[in-house]
Write a structure and sequence with these properties.
This protein is of the alpha+beta class. It is about 25% helix and about 30% strand. A hairpin with a 6-residue loop joins strand 3 and strand 4. The two termini are about 15 Å apart.
Length: about 80
Amino acid sequence: MTSTKAKTRAVAVYPDGSRFIIRRNRGAYWYNNTDGSSHMSSVKENVARMGGKVVYEPNPLYRAPGLESLLGSVLGKRRS
């Protein structure tokens, strides 16, 4: 089974301009190594308490499914 990239990603943005990607790992969300993992609602509360906000942006690593096979047929490459 292959893992797929999400279409969007959550990012914690603070007033000083710093940004942290909120990662999902084993059912919990991580945004800061010192605070550990927690639920998304807790992450939003903690970020808001520190003066920041959680925004969702398009994931630059996302590839639409089927696009590789379409490009492969156009370019003459075989998919193995």
